[in-house]
Every structure is written in structure tokens, then in C-alpha cells.
Amino acid sequence: MAVPLSMPSPSRSPGESRVRLLPTETPFPVHVTPDRPTAERAVACEIAELVRSKSRTVLGFATGSTMCGVYAELVRLVREEGLDLSGVVAFNLDEYLGIPAADPRSFRSFMRHALFDYVNVPEDAIHIPDPELARFDPAGYGLRYEETIRAAGGLDLQLLGLGRNAHIAFNEPGSAADSRTRVVELDDVTRRVAESNGTAGFAVGSAPTRAVTMGIATILEARRLRVLAFGEEKAQAVAATVFGPRTADVPASLLQGHADVEVWVDTAAAAGLAPGVGES
Ligand code: GLP
């Protein structure tokens, strides 16, 4: 299957415009960019075009350092190019349990500082899983979060990062393709990364053990999925996502059946895909 070149037109300076696609067969478009900003701007640009094309857009947001550049570009588009996000309904993928909403390490705080404090998504249109409600009534809360997404019209576009173990949101290895919003135990790999990653801010041994997350089936219902991964530490997860068997052991591989998923990676994250990818 030939991979279609479907490059949105992000603003960019000359010399950084090269976007190369994997020159082999993939189950979905994989955009390999020479650097992060090229991918970040392209994805932000696609979101902006989607928002401009509809009076109401339901967007799924993700946390993690991978998303920072996309959100910075969205903030720039709002401030400098008049992008209006007042018609956006936002749903976040996941949240830690046991971390108060106001704690700087919560995903709610992350979203405020990375995006929501600087753009005009209406406060009552921002949905981030509530760890307290999820803790007290996991089953009921999961159903209500799903129902809120459905009532909003379903997700038009969901952003996704990749864990080093190829988790998506907090769907850790072993998560079923039909899983829904629920409370989960976090994988040791995920906890170790959270404890070694400056952005997450957890001291060794203090990362949360549980989280509330949209399920794989919830994510697969989004009309568009855009996956981003940068850096060599994601290369193995990217390769397994793109070329591996479709298995619950590699949660992101379950995206392979989706009708509109695109993956954006820099050269380092593409290292496991094919020799020479990203070299000029
Ligand atoms: C957390 C989130 C994921 C995110 C991942 C990657 O585990 N639950 O949704 O994709 O972090 O984080 P980073 O972008 O910092 O590598």
C-alpha cells in the first residue's frame, strides 16, 4: 500500500519544510519529520483548520511532554492569528488517582499551564477525568464520562502520545480493544518514567499507582486520531505500533484498525521503522 502524502500547510520557515513519509508499507500514514516543530505545527494546523470549519468541535487532548509544542502552537494561533476556540468542547484522556486537582503534577494542572489558561475554550466545556469521583464510583464515573462524550457528539479528533511501553492514555499493556473509561493500575514502566521525568515531577517511589483513563474502545470511536512520538526512547514503541501484530500487549497497535489515524514522528522516533528513514 502506498502511503499518501497528506501534509497540512503549517506556518514554517524555509529549510524546515521537509516532511518525509516512510518509504515502505504501513497500515496508516506515518509522517517522519526532520524535527519536532515541523510535526507540532502540522498537527496544530490541522486542529485549527478543523475548528475553523465547524461551529462546534469536540477535541480530545492528551498530556505529556510530547504535546507541549502542539499546545504552544495553538496558543500562538489564538494570540497571533485570531484562532477562536470558543466553540471547542474538550475532553482529556486521563488523570492520576490520588493527586489533588490543584497539585502541579495533576494532568489538570498540566492542561491549564500548557493550554487552557491561554486560550478561550469555555470553562464549562473543559472535561478532565475527576480522580475523586472516579475513585468513589469507578464504574458509574466511567459510564458518565463516556455519556458526556457521546452527548457532545463524539470526538472529532483525539490527540495521542505514546508511552515507552506503547500505552495510549493509561491503557497499559494487556488493555482490551473493547475497554472503556475506567480506573486502572499503572504499569511499573509508566511509574518509573514518571519518576525520572522532570516534567511529571514525581520523586522516586512516589508516582501514583492508579489512574482513570478513557479506554481503547473510547479512543477508537474518535473520528480522527493523531499520534505523536519524539525521541529515540519512543522508537521501539513506534515500530511495534506501526509494524507489530495487533495485540493488547502493545496497546497502540490496536489503533491499526482505525479508519483515520496518522502518526507523526521525528527522525529519532522513526529509527526502528526502516534503515535510512529521515536521512537526507
Ligand atoms: C502519560 C499519559 C499518556 C502520554 C504519555 C507520554 O503516560 N497518560 O497519554 O502519551 O504520558 O508522555 P510523554 O509525552 O511525556 O512522553
Topology of this structure?
Blueprint: E1 20-21, E2 30-33, H1 36-53, E3 57-61, H2 68-81, E4 88-92, E5 94-96, H3 107-114, E6 126-127, H4 131-136, H5 138-151, E7 157-160, E8 182-185, H6 188-196, E9 210-213, H7 216-220, E10 224-229, H8 235-243, E11 261-266
Parallel strand pairs: 2-11, 3-4, 3-7, 4-6, 7-10, 10-11
Antiparallel strand pairs: 1-2, 5-9, 8-9
Helix pairs in contact: 1-2
Bound molecules: 2-amino-2-deoxy-6-O-phosphono-alpha-D-glucopyranose (GLP).
State the distance separating the first and last CA atoms.
Answer: 23 Å
Q: Number of folding domains?
A: 1
Q: Report the bound ligands by name, code or SMILES.
A: 2-amino-2-deoxy-6-O-phosphono-alpha-D-glucopyranose
Strand order of the largest sheet: 1-2-11-10-7-3-4-6
Fraction in beta strands: 15-25%
The CATH topology is given as Rossmann fold
Assign an overall shape: globular
Alpha carbon gyration radius: 18 Å
Notable characteristics:
280 residues, alpha/beta, Rossmann fold, 8-stranded mixed sheet, 3-stranded antiparallel sheet, 8 helices, 11 strands, disordered N terminus, binds 2-amino-2-deoxy-6-O-phosphono-alpha-D-glucopyranose
What does this entry show, briefly?
This protein has 280 residues and is of the alpha/beta class. It is 30% helix and 16% strand.
Structural commentary:
With 280 residues, the chain is α/β, with parallel strands linked by helices. It has one domain (26-266): Rossmann fold, CATH 3.40.50. 30% of the residues lie in helices and 16% in strands. The chain has 8 helices and 11 strands. Helix 1 packs across helix 2. It starts with 19 loop residues before the first strand and ends in a 14-residue tail after the last strand. Residues 1-17 have low confidence and may be disordered. The structure holds 2-amino-2-deoxy-6-O-phosphono-alpha-D-glucopyranose. The site of 2-amino-2-deoxy-6-O-phosphono-alpha-D-glucopyranose has 14 residues, from loops.
